[in-house]
Amino acid sequence: MMEHDMREKAKNAMRLILEAARFEVEEVDEPLDLSAVRDGDCLLVLCSNDAELIGQFDKTNYSLMVDDHEMTCKKLLFTLEKDIVTENCTQWGIDEFVQYAGEAVLADIVARELTLDLTPGKARAKKGAGSTSSSGEGGAAEEPDQSGISLLHFPVKLSEQAAIRTAGIQGAAKLRFIPYYLIHYASSGEQVYKDRRVPFDADGWGAINAINGIKLDLDGTKVEDSEIPANAEVSDAHITKEEANERMVTELIERLTQKVRIKQEKGDAIFYEEKTLKPDRKNITVDTKQVYIPVWQIRGKKIVEVNAFTGELLSEPMDEGVEVF
How far is it, in rounded angstroms, from Cα 305 to Cα 294? Predict the structure, then answer.
C-alpha cells in the first residue's frame, strides 16, 4: 500500500503536473484522488500501489456529466510498483513522474503549456541522448544507440520530446552538434603613466561559434570526450582557429584598454591630459580547442532551435540560414 503521507504528496505533485498541462483539477472521493477537465476531456487520477485497487480502477469505466453532456473519462495511474501492468489506463511509474514533474516546473518558468502522453498502457519516458537532465527537462529511458564517433562536446541533457515541448511547435526534430572554439585567455602586465598605474590582469573563458561567429559564455569544465548518438548531425566549421584566436585577443585588448585623464596646473591655468593605455599583445595568451554544443532543431511550420545542454530556447540560430524564432 502507498502510505497516506506519501499518497498525499503524490496527489499534490500530480495536481501541479496536470495544472501545467492546463487542466482544471479537483479532488474526488476515495478510492480515487483527482479529476481533471480540459477542453471537453475528463481525466481521473489514482495514486496507489495496491494491486487489487488498481485492477478495479483499470477495468471500471467512468463518465462525467457536464451540462447534460456525458463524457467518458480517461484514467491515469501513478504507482511505484514496477510489476503492475494495466491495459485501459495510462500508467506512470518513477521515470514518468520524475520527467513530468520536472517539465511542469520548466513549463511554469517559461510560461508554456505542458504536453502529456496519455496513451493507455505502461508509458516509458524517453531519455535525452546521453543522460538525464538534472533539472528534469529530459526523462529517463533506454540509452540511445551510439554512432561510434567521439567528439569533445557538451552533454545532451534534453530529450527530443522535451525539446519539442520547449519549442512550442510540432515537427521533425534533428539533433545537431554545432562547432565552437572554446578559448581560455590570460592577460598580465601593466603600464604606468606619471603617477597612474593601470594593470591588465585577466583570466577567463570565452567561446566563439565556428559557423557564424556568435559569442557564448561556456564553462569549459563541462565538456566530455565521448561518443555521440547515432543519427546525429555534425556541422562543419566555417571559421578557422586562428581567426577565432585573433578575434578573442582583439576583443580582450579593447575590453582592458583604459583612458587615463590627469589634471595639471601651471600657474593660473589648469589643463587635462588624456592618454589611452592598452595591454601589450605579447602579454596575452590563449589556449583554444574545438568543442561541440548539441542543439535540437525542430522543423515544423517554422524552424526553432533548442540548446540540448541547457534546455534554453534559442533566440538566434547557432547555424547559418536558419529562421530566427
Answer: 10
